[in-house]
Amino acid sequence: MVLADVAVVVPTSPDEALTAFGDGSDVTVVAGGTIVLPDLVAGRLRPKRALLLARAGLDGITRGGGRVTIGATTPVSALEGGDEPLATAARNVADPEIRGQATVGGNLCATASDDAPRGDLQAALIALDATVRSGGKGGERSEPVEDFLAGGAGRLVLDVSYDDTSRQTGYASARRPHAHHYTILAVAAAKRDGELRVAATGIGPRAVRLTAVEQSGSAADALTGLEPRDDALASAWYRSQLLPRLVERALGMLDGAEHA
Amino acid sequence: MRFVVNGVEHEVESHGLQPLLAVLREEVGITSPKAGCQQGGCGACTVLVDGEPRRSCLIPAGALNGVEITTVEGLGTPEHLGPVQAAFHEHYGSQCGFCTPGFLLATHALIKRSPGADRGQIEEALAGHACRCTGYVKILEAVEAAVGGAR
User: Fold this and answer.
1) pLDDT (0 to 100) of residue A257
2) Are B54 and B45 in contact (CB under 8 A)?
3) Which stretches within chain A are classed as H helix?
4) Fewer beta carbons within 10 Å, N or C terminal of chain A?
5) Are the beta carbons of A142 and A159 closer than 8 angstroms?
6) Which ipTM was obtained for this model?
7) pLDDT at residue A258, as a whole number
8) B55 contacts chain A (CB < 8 A)
């Protein structure tokens, strides 16, 4: 691993982190390191400049003004006892050591690798109608999490927030019995004042909103407009069989009913 | 950057993106954390960072200024094994030994956090650790004995 010519910056405040990130060009951001470090060691990534967020003061969960705000470098483990369906999605990630290190911001920025989908929290955050606040080119901006995901890489996540209110929620996933494997496919759903939001992780490179299901309330519409990905964890055929069943299970949980 | 390993302060010159695993093995000279998959998947490199079990292959050196690290060398000596080490020794929890340091440190942290951990909590805490020799039965028995002994 040739690192000598890679400049490393370790900011000690959010402002320092934003300044160091600049417009995001030629910067590799390292939060928990659970995705970047393996890529570095395996030679899949050759950064020019690295921004280490470990001491940037971007961690922590706060409740106020009717919102729950989760800092970008909050570890996934901090969500495990919190609001659903985010808590179940968090418990579904890898194993306790990885969850203590992997961050919410990193999970939002994670795209699928060649062999597996990543970003288990993304679907749950879409279901919660979360907002992502980020910095980078054009300055700071806040946008719905699905817009952030659609916009692709190149932003420095500062925090993600959602309304601090009660919802009916559901979460269903399929995974192989290996602690460190990424989720094959997962569906998160939340219903609030009659409005349903449903999203899936593992269909494409980032989580997607299942708008057809939201409109009809039916799992039969799960695959409308979607082409499931095909990778080392599962075939596109398998995912197409699985998605409607996971949607059905997640929707069933909204009423508090147990679905096998 | 400076950090403490097993109670001794070290000043290291490794590059800020060098994984802690490499810093410990190649610069500090502590070789109990093992370079297994180096992808965060096997748990052979797990050390305690400020008391929490972490994969040392995933932590960049630049994030470590001021932290306290514990490796197996800090749990006991060959003459005076720590309680978790003694339980693994007594219950045949180790065969080739490659994965053992990670299991020992994860168990040590589990007992600190959940002194009365049951079988389910033990399995959850060790879920990220792979062993290719024992079939896990002896390891789980050793951990249950260590938890029982600490109780």
Assistant:
1) 46
2) no
3) 14-21, 36-41, 86-91, 96-101, 104-109, 120-127, 145-150, 211-216, 236-254
4) C
5) no
6) 0.95
7) 42
8) yes
CA dist B67 and A149 (Å) reads 34
With bands split at pLDDT 50, 70 and 90, how would you rate the model's confidence at A153?
confident
A185-192 sheet: strands from edge to edge: A168-174, A185-192, A195-201, A208-209
**Domains along the sequence of chain A with CATH:** 7-254 (3.30.465.10)
B2-5 and B68-70: which strand pairing? parallel
Whats the size of chain B, residue-wise?
A: 151
pLDDT of residue A260: 36
Name the residue facing A97 among B60, B65, B128 (closest C-beta): B128
Q: Please tell me the pTM assigned to this model.
A: 0.94
Q: How far apart are the C-alpha atoms of A37 and A43, rounded to whole Å? A: 10
Rounded to 10°, the helix B83-90/B100-113 angle is: 120
Neighbouring C-beta atoms of residue A47, cutoff 10 Å? 20
DSSP code, position A159: E
Location of structure tokens 């570890």:
A75
Residue A176 — pLDDT band, cuts 50, 70, 90?
Answer: low
Q: Which residues of chain B have pLDDT under 70?
A: 151
Both tokens assigned to B144: 């249950």
Residue type at B33? Answer: P
Tell whether omega for the bond before B83 is within 30 degrees of 0, i.e. cis: no
Q: Cβ separation of A97 and B39 shorter than 8 Å?
A: no
Task: Catalogue all structural domains in chain B, each as residue range(s) with its CATH number.
Answer: 2-74 (3.10.20.30), 83-150 (1.10.150.120)
Contact B63 A55 (CB under 8 A): yes
